[in-house]
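Quick one: structure for this chain?
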Amino acid sequence: MIPGFHGLDLIVILVIALLIFGPKRLPEMGSAIGKSIKEFRKGVSELTAPKDTKEEDFEPTTAAHSEVLDKELASKRAQLEALDREIATRRASGEQSNTETGTNAE
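Got it. Here's what it folds into:
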């Protein structure tokens, strides 16, 4: 039993619920509460289960796979550096045009 609740307390609660919601609605509510508890337990078990499966699915990388990843990483770094240079040039040309227009306005 639930600590603090005795048999008579539960009967009183059920009678009050029956009076408030009626005999037709009470089984529907019990069913809905049961489904909610079931979904909650399912969600909790899904949250704990993927941690176990992820560790099992982990495969050590091979040397060839590691080389491919290193090449991809180097390629992405080169692209990033090229974009950084392009941004720096655009900012410099933008600042240069702003200073030229500022001197022409005077």
